[in-house]
Design a protein that fits this description.
Layout lengths: L7 E3 L8 E3 L6 E3 L4 E6 L27 E7 L7 E11 L2 E6 L14 E6 L5 E5 L2 E4 L3 E7 L5 E4 L7 E2 L11 E5 L7 E7 L16 E10 L8 E3 L13 E8 L2 H19 L4 H11 L1 E6 L6 E8 L6
Parallel strand pairs: 1-4, 3-5
Antiparallel strand pairs: 2-12, 4-16, 5-15, 6-14, 6-16, 7-8, 9-10, 11-13, 11-15, 14-17, 18-20, 19-20
Helix pairs in contact: 1-2
């Protein structure tokens, strides 16, 4: 009996795509059980650098945003199967950025002006947001997905039942992501790497960065799931659980408005308590504040909480 040895593949760094297709030609074809190492570009496809300034946002070519490494075909994958993607390792590049992009984010009317900040990530452990504020580096890929059925030039954002631009910050090292296969071969792609992000990515950017990602693929035949699922290897927020949290809330019949209200209150709290410009408080919220649905069962009145980890502040 022949036992096939799992292989490690290196995805070519010079190939990316900017849209979802239902039947793209695979760049790499692997067996179930194989591992692939990807070197992904930051989300503007190198239009920004560590030396970029806010003025760089005006010249951004949106057709080159969301460069994805892929697609990777898994032999034997068919619609109705499930693809397990084990996140073996993630290594951030040497720099990253976050920004307010006009017209986007949860509070576009309050923050209509462009604003870009870049950060040195060579510390390896923290993003130094300010001399007294350090955000733990906890990398993940903002976009992981299989090719969606019937797609033709479909934008990378927003996500769908196939995965895609999910921005689920819990997809860190050790997590297993499960995706429903929608086309033959599954045709997996990834990119949009983040060094840190709060649940909600409220200003529309996380700490965007280049990344080296090591992913292991396992095909589960005949297992059908309706949309992505995942299994973490431990706590959801292990790097900030040693201190308390400060929460603000939004209350009302509309979850979006309640989210905005909770975030407004958080931006106000951060800017006044820590003597920070509101635009920087907004960026900080996007990097480390988690939005949570705290109450939804009371008919018509929902509560959304915005939760700030106190561990990011120096004693």
């Amino acid at each position: 009996m022949n036992v096939q040895t799992a292989k490690v593949h290196h995805f070519p760094e010079d190939i990316v795509h900017y849209a979802w297709e239902k039947d793209p030609k695979p760049v790499l074809t692997i067996e179930s059980g194989d591992t692939v190492i990807f070197k992904t570009r930051e989300v503007t496809d190198n239009q920004f650098s560590i030396d970029s300034t806010t003025e760089s946002i005006a010249s951004l070519d949106w057709d080159k945003v969301y460069p994805l490494a892929g697609p990777v075909a898994i032999k034997g994958a068919e619609p109705g199967d499930m693809l397990e993607v084990e996140i073996v390792n993630l290594e951030t590049g040497s720099w990253g950025w976050t920004a307010i992009l006009p017209g986007l984010g949860l509070l576009p009317e309050e923050f209509p002006d462009a604003y870009l900040r870049t950060f040195d990530l060579t510390d390896g452990e923290f993003i130094h947001f300010r001399e007294d504020i350090k955000i733990p580096i906890e990398p993940f890929l903002g976009t992981m997905g299989v090719s969606p059925k019937d797609a033709s030039g479909q934008p990378i954002m927003p996500p769908g039942t196939f995965g895609g631009n999910m921005d689920v910050r819990q997809l860190t090292i050790g997590t297993k992501l499960y995706l429903p296969v929608q086309v033959a071969g599954a045709l997996f792609s990834c990119g949009d790497a983040h060094a840190a992000q709060g649940d909600g990515e409220v200003c529309v950017s996380a700490l965007e960065c280049p990344m080296t990602a090591t992913l292991k693929f396992n095909l589960i035949k005949g297992k059908t799931i309706p949309s992505p699922q995942f299994l973490t290897s431990g706590e959801l927020t292990p790097k900030v659980n040693h201190k308390g949290f400060f929460g603000t809330t939004g209350v009302g019949p509309d979850l979006m408005k309640a989210s905005q209200d909770a975030l407004r209150a958080m931006v106000d709290h951060i800017s006044t308590t820590y003597e920070m410009e509101p635009k920087d408080a907004y960026l900080l919220s996007s990097l480390c504040v988690d939005l949570k649905i705290s109450e939804i069962v009371d008919a018509g009145q929902y509560i959304v909480s915005a939760v700030l980890p106190m561990a990011v502040f120096e004693d």
